[in-house]
Amino acid sequence: MGLQRLIVPSGSIVNKRKFPIILAIAAFWTIADFFVFLVQLSSGTFQFKYDDINSDTYKAILLREANVLIVSLLIGFLLVSVLPRFFRHASPAVNLIMKTLILIIAGLIMSFLIYMTYEVIIGHRTFVESIKRFYHNTFHAEWIIPKMVEWSILYVITQLAIEINEKYSPGAFFDIIIGKYLKPREEERIIVFIDLRNSTPIAEKLGKEYFEFIRDFIFCISAGVMEHNGRIYQYVGDEIVAWWPHSRINARKAVQALIESRKILNINNDIFKSNYDIVPEYKAGMHTGKVTVGQVGIARKELVMSGDTINTASRIRSACNDLNQKFLVSKEIIELLRMKDWQTESMGEVDLKGKNENIELFALKI
């Protein structure tokens, strides 16, 4: 099946958060190129002629790094925004190989621009003569093979860094690096459990395509959560667990995230219908309170939350089926939100599995 690509609003945070990554890639490559260039220049191993008579070395260096920066921005854009969409359904190995090959070609283009601008602006040669010199110095010189190896290593390291960054929710990787949660800490957080409605019949209908469906569904929900500064705690099957720091503003953001996720799903209704003949719906449970956060693992480190708040939020989400509601929240959330009466409906005190006492739940009318 030729799957259509999902649509995310152009102003979405999913798109906005790509720009700092692109800038970071461009800055890193430009700085790395500058230092490598200086080392090669000082050792006399650099192949291009920056020592011609009447040549302005500083101007040549500035011109070179300007070219590197511009092309690095384009490569970063390809790597972060364009290529992932084309290779989204490919294996990690194919992803790595194909992206690296494409980026090596981009590296050759960068070398072409660097050389041509130097020859035309610094060397005052004609365009045709510059092309001939570029061809000779590129494909009849020994520097090209080591340079391609250098590019390959740089690209692979960059792609691995991107994968590691995407492995963790924004901020989580940094928290692990600085050891913020080496000792367990108690924090107040808003916890939201979201999962797919009617997942069992959908899985039976789609068969092996169910995984692709779940991946697209999770993408849409996650985009809505991220749009309102939520952090993804974990994915479990068709379930997404997100959290916000405890505050009235963040409680409202959590509600807005549910609305935003629905909007993004609605934007992609036709695509889901075309790809899977199913339009997904979801249910959510929300609770707030104290959780214990700590770092666990040896070979694979994770930040783990535990406590009654997590369990209660999960039970509230499960109660959506019993009460035939899409969005259920605890009384603590209602008190935090201060929503108007017509925006909520009390479900009364509900006996949640695993809880010693009944708790009052409210349905959100959003």
In short:
58% of the residues lie in helices and 17% in strands. The chain has helices at residues 13-16, 18-43, 57-86, 92-122, 127-139, 144-167, 172-177, 199-206, 210-227, 248-267, 269-276, 308-323, 331-337, and strands at residues 185-196, 231-236, 239-245, 282-296, 302-306, 327-330, 344-350, 359-364. The protein folds into two domains: 18-167, no CATH class; 172-364, Alpha-Beta Plaits, CATH 3.30.70.
Alpha-carbon Rg, integer: 27 Å
Could you tell me the mean pLDDT?
A: 81
Order of helices and strands: HHHHHHHEHHEEHHEEHEHEE
Q: So, CATH architecture of the largest domain?
A: 2-Layer Sandwich
Structural class: alpha+beta
Helical proportion, percent range: 55-70%
The CATH superfamily of the largest domain appears as: Nucleotide cyclase, GGDEF domain
Query: Helical segment tally?
Result: 13
By CATH reckoning, the class of the largest domain would read: Alpha Beta
Count the beta strands. Answer: 8
Strand percent estimate: 15-25%
Task: Give a description of the structure.
- Strands 1, 2, 3, 4, 5, 6, 7 and 8 form an 8-stranded mixed β-sheet that branches.
- α4 packs across α5.
- The chain folds into 2 domains: 18-167, no CATH class; 172-364, Nucleotide cyclase, GGDEF domain (Alpha-Beta Plaits), CATH 3.30.70.1230.
- β7 and β8 (359-364) form a beta hairpin.
- The chain contains 13 helices and 8 strands.
- The protein is elongated, with a radius of gyration of 27 Å.
- It has 366 residues and is α+β, with helices and mostly antiparallel strands.
- The longest helix has 31 residues, at 92-122.
- Residues 47-54 have low confidence and may be disordered.
- It has helices spanning 13-16, 18-43, 57-86, 92-122, 127-139, 144-167, 172-177, 199-206, 210-227, 248-267, 269-276, 308-323, 331-337; strands at 185-196, 231-236, 239-245, 282-296, 302-306, 327-330, 344-350, 359-364.
